[in-house]
Amino acid sequence: MEPVDLQALHVQQEPNVESIAAWATSMFVVELPEHEVLKEDLLAHAYQVRASADCAIASQVAVSAKNNLFESRLNFLESDAQGVSELRSILEELVSAVAEQVNSGCLEEGQGLDATIVESWCHITENGGYHDAHSHPNCSWCGIYYLDAGDCELNSRSGVNRFYDPRNCANQYHDAGTQYLDATGVWDFVPKSGQVVVFPSYLTHSALPYFGEKDRVVIAFNCRVSQSKR
Fold first, then answer.
1. Name one Pfam family in it (predicted).
2. Is 3 helix (H, G, I), strand (E, B) or coil?
3. Does the residue 90 lie in any domain?
4. Closest residue by Cα to residue 32 from 76, 73, 74, 88
5. DSSP 14
6. Which of 63, 131, 200, 221 has the most CB atoms around its CB within 10 Å?
7. pLDDT at 79
8. CB 220 within 8 A of CB 74
């Protein structure tokens, strides 16, 4: 029998550690090529809706969570005003593509997904306006179209949309091993005119206080998705 090399037995091998990124949240941002063509008609419609409203929060949803902004009723994209139906079609096609991408592993050959906007509204936010943290029930995907980002700015967080970590109880205990959670607990998105951000409805978000001379004008929408044949 050959002698056993005891020293070799005690040599520790480096473990092969594999990183697994589980339960990621998919979000999407796109710049609408049609923005320059549509914006003036849509802005005119938004201000006309505000002028005809009898209160600041016409939707009557979460009135106390909003300050110094106008919110229309939840049928903004159902109007026959110039540019509205075109924008609705563009947004529904966008969310349909998003839903098909994230659900690609669940779809059978020849199967597609169609998104339908079930609620839509505009916000016209003035200096000092904000919208507290919230999420959108009774839909699967949501979006915000920045019709006029006004004077939004990242360094001061003026008018940015803040999205919050969806992992329940992620912050229940803090020590040196959870510092990465503090660094990733929120994600601030700086509005840019012409952009649309699309996100799952469970994602809590807010519009931080906006400070600017111009109005911050957005169109928000909620979608439900159904299966279809391609």
1. 2OG-FeII_Oxy_5
2. coil
3. yes
4. 88
5. P
6. 221
7. 97
8. no
Alpha-carbon distance 57 to 35, whole Å? Answer: 26
> Beta strand 186-189 with 205-207: parallel, antiparallel or unpaired?
unpaired
DSSP E strand stretches across the chain: 28-31, 66-71, 111-134, 141-148, 161-164, 186-189, 195-200, 205-207, 216-229
| Amino acid type, 165 | D
pLDDT of residue 226: 97
Q: How far apart are CA 7 and CA 208, in angstroms?
A: 62
Q: Would residue 5 count as lying in a domain?
A: no
Query: How many structural domains comprise the chain?
Result: 1
- By three-state DSSP, how is residue 153 classified? strand
Take residue 173 and report the two structure tokens written for it: 């205990």
**Considering the entire predicted model, what is its pTM?**
0.90
The string of DSSP codes covering 58-102 is TT-SSGGGEEEEEE--TBGGG--STTHHHHHHHHHHHHHHHHHHH
Determine the residue type at 122: C
Task: Tell me phi and psi for residue 125, to 5 degrees.
Answer: -105, 130
- Asked if residue 92 belongs to a domain, the reply is yes
Instruction: Report yes or no on 55 lying in a domain.
Output: yes
- At residue 185, the pLDDT reads 87
Q: Residue 67: which CATH number?
A: 2.60.120.620
Domain with 76 in it: 28-229
State which residues of the chain have pLDDT below 50.
Answer: none
Supply the pLDDT for residue 184. 81
